[in-house]
Amino acid sequence: MIVLKFGGTSVEDAAAIRRLIAIVRPQLDRQPVIVVSAMGKTTNRLLECAQMAELGNLENAYRRVETIAADHFIALDQLALPEEIAEVRDSLRRRFDGIRDTLGEINQAGRVTPRLSDAISSCGELLSSVIVAAAFRWEGMRGVWVDARPMMQTNDDFTRAAVHFDIAYPKLKSGFTAALTGGGVPVTQGFIGSTSDGVTTTIGRGGSDYSASIIGAAIDAQEIQIWTDVDGIMTTDPRVVLDAAKVKVISFAEASELAYFGAKVLHPSTLLPAMAKDIPVRVCNSRRPEIQGTAIVRKAPPSRALVKAIAFKRGITVVNVTSDRMLMAYGFLARLFEVFDRNETPVDMVATSEVSVSMTLDDPRHLELLIADLESFGDVSVERDQALVCLVGDKLKYTPGIAARIFSSIEDVNVSMISHGASAINVSFIVAGKDVNHAVGSLHREFFTDLDEETFEGTIAAPAGA
Ligand code: ADP
Ligand code: ASP
Ligand code: MG
What we know:
This protein is α/β, with parallel strands linked by helices. The protein is built from 14 helices and 18 strands. The chain has helices at about 15-25, 40-55, 60-80, 80-110, 115-120, 125-140, 165-180, 210-220, 250-260, 270-275, 330-340, 365-375, 400-410, 435-450, and strands at about 1-5, 30-35, 140-145, 185-190, 190-195, 200, 225-230, 245, 250, 280-285, 295, 310-320, 350, 355-360, 380-390, 415-420, 425-430, 455. Strands 3-4-2-1-7-10-11-9 form an 8-stranded mixed sheet. Helix 2 (about 40-55) runs antiparallel to helix 3 and helix 4 runs antiparallel to helix 6. The structure holds adenosine-5'-diphosphate (ADP), aspartic acid and magnesium ion. Adenosine-5'-diphosphate binds near residues 234, 236, 237 and 264.
């Protein structure tokens, strides 16, 4: 069994769905399970409708829903068997009616509760998966629509629910084994799950990658394929550095660091389930299926490259607490972090001195409350609009002088909170948000101008100033 996950652009319209089927067809003998995202930007569009309803603009929200519906019906009409079209159209129509009802509820409540948000945002995957399953049947295969929700059990932390693996794994395994019998091609949703009471949840934006990995681990898949809109894991985000190259093979540990520190190509938690079961993951381009993507494996072959890739995350907030009560005191950090726990705010990076602690957050939702609590510890200052930059490579561990090379290549940028943690396969630091593109560009020139062809594939970046 294998799992193939197709992201938003890989199911954005009828042409994309035909490409998806052409990718799956030659792999039918490997018993594929298909996990899909919402079509194109549907999730964002649905959430915009929710906001309109919240602001009292129900008519506009309904109009917007109809444009989303029209896009889905256009795709369906090109992809479903004539004898099925009416029935599948009805099922999509019922889903859109449900969306309208939920928007009405939001309008009444005057606010999008996390639970109502999930009721709306989960619909993108519920719609796209119905169309993709129909498209398999139209192409002569036995497409079977599978509702992920009763199997993917989560807690009720709506919009970022945690999966109950002990319950979900056996349910996913028996559900997909049944759907595969007799040559079925199961098509299911990424991103969504449900509570034990059957209320729909979502597991965090971009979570379809994570769903695919969870399903892969549950069914003991031979491989998990992530089909997206770039050639694989690249040396950095190709939207920022146009000549980023593809990394051919990378270890779970390296790819996890990249995902965690902002490489959007994989949801931060994606690799954990795959890694636990040692299932290789491949990231491929659904527009260029003929090229090999990036293989993510337990141990990457030795490479000459010091840095495999550079990730970055914008919108970081740095919180500094300065207090001379910290000096020689024990238990100070424990009490300090308890404040973050209480305010449900994860910390990404920490730097301490004898009298101060700096911490980065990428979720500033509870910042005001957090600051109020932290003020009992000492002086608190906050820097917003910062960015985290992270270089990853398992050779960073063994390379003397690497820090000098990194920081001299960006000497025109102000850097703070440098971290080279225990795993030592990453070097991370903070720069002002306005400097991040420049810093990443300079670092990319420094480390990827002379590419090791064993490790990378792509254009060789022009030398600086050329
Ligand atoms: P999907 O809808 O298929 O899940 P995403 O938009 O979530 O696709 O992720 C793919 C995007 O991730 C790419 O278009 C690219 O801009 C971005 N990205 C960021 N960092 C990297 C990286 N190191 N390698 C590849 N893509 C990256
Ligand atoms: N559709 C969801 C989102 O846009 C999940 C995903 O695409 O991975 O966040
Ligand atoms: Mg994604």
